[in-house]
Amino acid sequence: MTMNERVAPLLYIFAGLFGFAGVALAAAAAHGGGDAHLVSSASAMCLAHAPALLALAIGIDKLRTAWVAGVLLAIGTLLFAGDLTMARYAGSGLFPMAAPTGGFAMMFGWLAVAVGAFIRKRA
């Protein structure tokens, strides 16, 4: 089983979960009051990265760096959105620097997408 075959199903799963969480968090932000900006930011990251993960899963055989980009985006979104959501509902985040770590992982995930444009697939 290739790396693409192992990672693609995970990207589909996280795309679906992030889409679900993004909509739920948007509703919580709209109706929750308090620190709604935390939940709103978490929602935005989930809703931005769900379709990106879906696209990477669909195109995993066309973009050489798709699996790396997808893993970085998924982990980054989990850390960033998870930290903000925990801060809102539990009173403290996941761990110190979780959101910035997630943010950097997402940025490097997007960079991996861009780098993939310059790396040709083998025939």
Automatic annotation (TrEMBL):
<dbReference type="Pfam" id="PF04241">
    <property type="entry name" value="DUF423"/>
</dbReference>
<keyword id="KW-0812">Transmembrane</keyword>
<dbReference type="InterPro" id="IPR006696">
    <property type="entry name" value="DUF423"/>
</dbReference>
<feature type="transmembrane region" description="Helical">
    <location>
        <begin position="94"/>
        <end position="119"/>
    </location>
</feature>
<keyword id="KW-0732">Signal</keyword>
<protein>
    <submittedName>
        <fullName>DUF423 domain-containing protein</fullName>
    </submittedName>
</protein>
<feature type="transmembrane region" description="Helical">
    <location>
        <begin position="65"/>
        <end position="82"/>
    </location>
</feature>
<keyword id="KW-0472">Membrane</keyword>
<keyword id="KW-1133">Transmembrane helix</keyword>
<feature type="transmembrane region" description="Helical">
    <location>
        <begin position="36"/>
        <end position="58"/>
    </location>
</feature>
<feature type="signal peptide">
    <location>
        <begin position="1"/>
        <end position="26"/>
    </location>
</feature>
